[in-house]
Specification:
The complex is a heterodimer. In chain A, 33% of the residues lie in helices and 16% in strands. Chain A is of the alpha/beta class. In chain A, helix 4 packs antiparallel against helix 5 (81-89), helix 6 packs antiparallel against helix 8 (123-136) and helix 13 (268-277) packs across helix 14. Chain A contains 18 helices and 16 strands. In chain A, the strands form four sheets. In chain A, strands 3-2-1-4-16 form a five-stranded parallel beta sheet. By secondary structure, chain B is an alpha/beta fold. Chain B has helices at residues 22-25, 68-74, 110-122, 142-146, 169-177, 190-202, 250-257, 261-278; strands at residues 2-9, 14-20, 33-37, 45-53, 58-64, 81-82, 84-89, 100-106, 126-133, 152-157, 164-165, 183-187, 207-210, 226-229, 232-235, 242-244. In chain B, the strands form three sheets. In chain B, strands 6-1-2-5-4-3-7 form a seven-stranded antiparallel beta sheet, with helices on both faces. In chain B, helix 5 runs parallel beside helix 6 (190-202). Chain B is globular. Classes of the chains: A alpha/beta, B alpha/beta. The interface between A and B is large, with 38 and 41 residues.
């Protein structure tokens, strides 16, 4: 137990934040194994001991799904790890995933009282510690949220990404039967095809999905709703009483510059899907190929751009440039990812905007960029980049990966009459996720546009509660 | 898993395969495609439906043995299973109100031309079919075409071993010049579609082509299948696979189809070595 003072009250540790053990940058940039190794029990205890156990824990409000952070840290201090897992799972079905990929620095950790004067408690790393503890247990000893008494209602969840998985788990707790329809051959959505192995091992995603299946969630892969099935059919002849749409914003956005269809130009989606979902880094053991560039330019400044750049490095690129039109300060990527990318030798070319991709015999040979300056703030509040006249120059490269965002995929919405969407194709919902169609709810990127894993999970969960209320009204 | 229920060898390297997939079978329309994965380490490849039966719950496709995946496929038999079959994907071919149509099928593209011609006939169009191959041995589905109520079936081979000697563009030009068709639909190798588009463009006849770019997911997610149509970039999987042939940049399509040519050869030769070891 932690030290106590003479009055018997616990005295929190004043030690600095416990660093995350990480693999050596040179070594790790050669393979796809995980970069951050996770806390040991001692490290987790030392870090948990920094928590003040505030009477008014602001961190909980900083969490999009309001995990009872104070309690799970208290359980760690008591070495009751299974208890800690149970606390998290009350709110979040995927702690091993969120502990790795949540932007905690903008959420719970930003709200931690300690962050006012120094470094916040490493809440994300502690969450990961518990998540991994749970997954290391035998299946029967894992924390499994209790499944509700069978209500007789059936809910279709479309898409098995973070929103769909969170929604499905919650619906089972209410006792509704759940079938997830996934268009790809493997479940997990962006957790499977998008986020690389070295940041989120697929075995973790698989284990979390299996835990949901243990709860009775049925997953049907190779099922494209809008093509293999229509939503009308699911709600009609297939007998589903409600549906949740969590199909993500999966369509890649391109730059719209000349030369973009040359060989060697990838969307980040394609590049990452080939490597993560199809395991092209094992080619020819796995059958899907990926072009391994020698000099790779990645365009964009978000987490996906970092993932693509670091993946290209691991595929053997000699040089990887990250080309972003604003400055590093405006980059939407997590600081941690930026830091990891730099450590691995990614070269940052800030304030550069692509104008044209050059090629020879159909293949990329370079990219013309213009230097930018930061002007007045734009609608996003960030200073808008402005071209510096006459500053065009060429970056020599044989591969360009475009990671400038995604937009709504119309495949399902177009095939669903009566489902109202915005002018940009995102599904319109109320605060609970209810769409214009009765019994049909939606959440995640297909409603909000590209956002984070945890926001999508929060939306899935909120919608599950709304679906439960809707079904109660049907009964 | 998807059970294989039918397999037939159509020529030395072309095979027809049927798979039990009742949910897909009730949805397919002519011109649409499927994505399949042979096994757990397999790649996802797009193949166009050649036939289907909603009542009996099966779908069929025809493939040519060209790389590792199609080699693997060719070694499977009825009773075996495929890891994944997804579909139907893509926008169905527009078949209504076209009038007098020439449907051109080249090589393995004939597999797609057949259901398209059938659907056009069912919609009340008058259809002339032009079926071409390098030689007699490589012609496929001739009996099936002969069973359709076509205006005419024109068979063409490069070497003259069956039908007319020459290229499919010759009878196509003739039909255009005679004012005998209002529309052309060409399905085959990119180079053949390019010349069909050129032949019809010169003669002022609209021409639809069914493109076969490289794809990964087939649902609009990856953008590997982008093609230039007019001054726009389109996705072959969701915007197509059919496009106005007069506007397609075929040079770009052919270049993009070759991206992985070297790697595909590598994978196929590795696989062939493996196969010969097991003999």
């Amino acid at each position: 137990m932690p030290p106590v003072d003479e009055t018997g009250r616990r005295r929190p540790s004043r030690a600095p934040r416990t660093p995350m053990p990480e693999r050596d940058p040179v070594e790790r940039a050669q393979d796809f194994d995980e970069v951050a190794l996770g806390y040991t029990e001692e490290q987790a205890l030392a870090e948990a001991d920094r928590c003040l156990q505030c009477a008014n824990p602001t961190c909980i409000e900083g969490c999009p799904v309001n995990i009872d952070i104070k309690s799970f840290i208290a359980r760690i201090l008591e070495r009751d790890y299974a208890g800690g897992v149970a606390v998290i799972k009350e709110r979040n079905a995927l702690p091993a995933v969120c502990g790795r990929v949540c932007p905690q620095e903008e959420q719970c950790e930003a709200a931690c009282v300690l962050s006012r004067k120094g470094e916040p408690v490493a809440i994300g790393r502690l969450e990961r510690f518990l998540g991994d503890y749970d997954l290391a247990c035998d299946l029967e000893h894992r924390c499994r949220p209790e499944v509700g008494t069978d209500t007789g209602f059936k809910v279709a969840v479309i898409g098995s990404g973070p929103a769909g998985l969170a929604c499905a788990g919650e619906l089972r707790r209410f006792g509704h039967a759940v079938t997830i329809f996934e268009s790809l051959h493997a479940a997990g959505g962006v957790l499977t095809y998008g986020i690389p192995e070295f940041r989120l091992p697929k075995s973790i995603v698989q284990a979390e999905i299996e835990a949901l299946e243990e709860m009775g969630v049925e997953i049907v892969t190779d099922a494209v709703v809008g093509a293999t099935y229509t939503l009308d059919e699911l709600m009609g002849e297939h007998g589903y009483d409600a549906a949740f749409i969590g199909v993500g914003a999966g369509l890649p956005v391109f730059l719209g510059v000349p030369g973009e269809n040359l060989n060697g130009v990838y969307s980040a989606n394609e590049f990452l899907t080939r490597v993560n979902l199809m395991r092209a880094y094992e080619f020819p053991k796995a059958d899907t190929p990926v072009w391994r560039g020698r000099k790779v330019a990645v365009v964009g400044g978000g987490n996906v751009a970092m993932d693509a750049a670091r993946t290209a490095k691991r595929l053997g690129a000699e040089q990887v440039f990250l080309v972003y039109r604003r400055s590093e300060e405006e980059m939407p990527a997590r600081r941690e990812e930026v830091h990891h990318a730099r450590e691995e030798g990614i070269e940052f070319k800030m304030l550069c905007s692509p104008q044209e991709i050059l090629g020879r015999d159909g293949w990329v040979t370079g990219m013309v960029v213009t230097r930018m300056e930061l002007g007045e703030p734009d609608e996003s509040g960030r200073r808008a980049p402005v071209c510096v006249v006459g500053s065009e120059h060429t970056i020599e490269c044989d591969t360009v990966i475009v990671a400038v965002g995604t937009r709504a995929n119309p495949l399902l919405t177009k095939a669903t009459p009566g489902l109202e969407v915005s002018s940009r194709g995102y599904i319109l919902t109320d605060a609970d996720g209810a769409t214009s169609l009765p019994g049909v709810f939606a959440g995640g990127d297909i409603v909000t546009g590209a956002a984070t894993v945890i926001l999508a999970m929060g939306a899935g969960k909120r919608a599950a509660r709304a679906i439960d209320r809707y079904l109660a009204g049907c009964g | 898993m998807f059970q294989i229920v039918h397999k037939r060898q159509l020529s030395e390297s072309v095979f027809e395969m049927g798979v039990e997939a009742p949910q897909i079978a009730r949805k397919v329309r002519a011109g649409q495609f499927l994505m399949l994965r042979v096994n757990e380490t397999g790649e996802r490849i797009p193949l166009t439906f050649s036939d289907w039966s909603a009542d009996e719950g099966w779908i069929r496709f025809i493939f040519m043995r060209v790389g590792k995946t199609t080699h693997l496929l060719s070694h499977l038999e009825a009773g075996d299973a495929l890891a994944d079959v997804v579909g139907p994907l893509g926008t169905p071919t527009h078949v209504e109100g076209l009038g007098r149509v020439a449907v051109i099928g080249g090589g393995v593209g004939t597999a797609v031309a057949y259901p398209v011609a059938r659907a056009m006939l069912e919609s009340g169009n008058e259809v002339t079919a032009i079926v071409g191959a390098r030689s007699k041995d490589l012609l496929i589905l001739i009996d099936e075409f002969e069973a359709l109520p076509l205006k005419e079936l024109i068979v063409v081979t490069d070497d003259g071993s069956a039908g007319e000697k020459g290229l499919v563009t010759q009878p196509l030009a003739r039909l255009c010049d005679a004012g005998a068709i209002d529309h052309a639909m060409a399905i085959g190798p990119a180079i053949m579609m390019k010349f069909c588009a050129q032949t019809t463009k010169e003669r002022g006849v609209p021409c639809t082509v069914s493109l076969n770019p490289i794809m990964v997911d087939g649902t609009g997610m990856c953008g590997a299948c982008r093609v230039t149509v007019g001054d726009q970039t389109k996705f072959g999987c969701v915007d197509g696979p059919d496009f106005d042939g007069h506007l397609v940049d075929f040079e770009e399509l052919m270049s993009r189809q070759r991206v992985y040519a070297d790697m595909e050869r590598e994978a196929d030769s590795e696989y062939s070595k493996e196969c010969s070891c097991h003999l």
